[in-house]
Amino acid sequence: MRHIRLLLPLALAAGTLSGCGAAIEGRAADDGRPVVLTTFTVLADIAENVAGEHLRVESITKVGAEIHGYEPTPGDIAKASEADLILDNGLNLEAWFGQFVESVDVPHVVVSDGVEPIDIAADAYAGTPNPHAWMSPVNVQIYVDNMVEAFSELDPEHASDFEAAGTAYQAELQEVQDELVDGLSALPENERALATCEGAFSYLARDAGLTERYIWPVNAEQQATPQQIAGMIEFVEAGDIPAVFCESTVSDKPMRQVVEATGAAFGGTLYVDSLSEADGPVPTYLDLIRYDTRIILDALGGGDA
Ligand SMILES: [Zn+2]
């Protein structure tokens, strides 16, 4: 109950919220299961792992979408009003979300509840929490706890299944975390640095013992200023950092400039804000975090420093 927020009294008859499968727009595949709507693909995949076959999980934004500055469509609102539960990341990720959920009478759970937030240090976002908590497998274990609790309230009959699925998934998350920490421990101190385009790795860096540096704090404003690029060049040179990275949803041009100026390797493209299509490299969250872990370890470990 603690995590469930009823934003407006649930005065509507239950039948208008769920269960009436007849010809509702966007519910072509309605199969009678409760519908859990998430804000983006990463959350949807994590939720599916906890929900198993008992709930139908969907994402408002599509694969590859820019999630920070997304603008919901009337279709999204219609879809949300038919959901039984809405999950959002919180920590200011979904700037568009507050107004969005106010327009529908559906219970809403913030899956990052309980994560210790890290504030963004720079620019217009200074002092607001960094939203990218899912980039640490340690935090996602908290997301899973919140989902197990929310799903068990939504569908108490299957509470023990949610619990078991959540525990199994948490064990896989811990494996990735251990791989990252073990791999990094083999590197010299100065090479334990993560230089990226977006400041999306603060939680991963904190939980894995990496020093983080980014060109811009949040992808919503992805125009690198000359000062931002100069700052990155200085960081790479000062630490003799072997490799730098950029994320899949933005242009890596500014980071290529850093590569040219410093001779550091371009370590690869990291996935953060979206999964890939099913036939891409990171169709699930576990794929995403394993993929990033390997790119980071390979590039830092095999660098030319
Ligand atoms: Zn982001």
TrEMBL record:
<dbReference type="InterPro" id="IPR006127">
    <property type="entry name" value="ZnuA-like"/>
</dbReference>
<feature type="signal peptide">
    <location>
        <begin position="1"/>
        <end position="22"/>
    </location>
</feature>
<dbReference type="InterPro" id="IPR050492">
    <property type="entry name" value="Bact_metal-bind_prot9"/>
</dbReference>
<keyword id="KW-0479">Metal-binding</keyword>
<dbReference type="InterPro" id="IPR006128">
    <property type="entry name" value="Lipoprotein_PsaA-like"/>
</dbReference>
<keyword id="KW-0813">Transport</keyword>
<dbReference type="GO" id="GO:0030001">
    <property type="term" value="P:metal ion transport"/>
</dbReference>
<protein>
    <submittedName>
        <fullName>Manganese transport system substrate-binding protein</fullName>
    </submittedName>
</protein>
<dbReference type="GO" id="GO:0046872">
    <property type="term" value="F:metal ion binding"/>
</dbReference>
<dbReference type="GO" id="GO:0007155">
    <property type="term" value="P:cell adhesion"/>
</dbReference>
<dbReference type="InterPro" id="IPR006129">
    <property type="entry name" value="AdhesinB"/>
</dbReference>
<dbReference type="GO" id="GO:0030313">
    <property type="term" value="C:cell envelope"/>
</dbReference>
<dbReference type="Pfam" id="PF01297">
    <property type="entry name" value="ZnuA"/>
</dbReference>
<keyword id="KW-0732">Signal</keyword>
<comment type="similarity">
    <text>Belongs to the bacterial solute-binding protein 9 family.</text>
</comment>
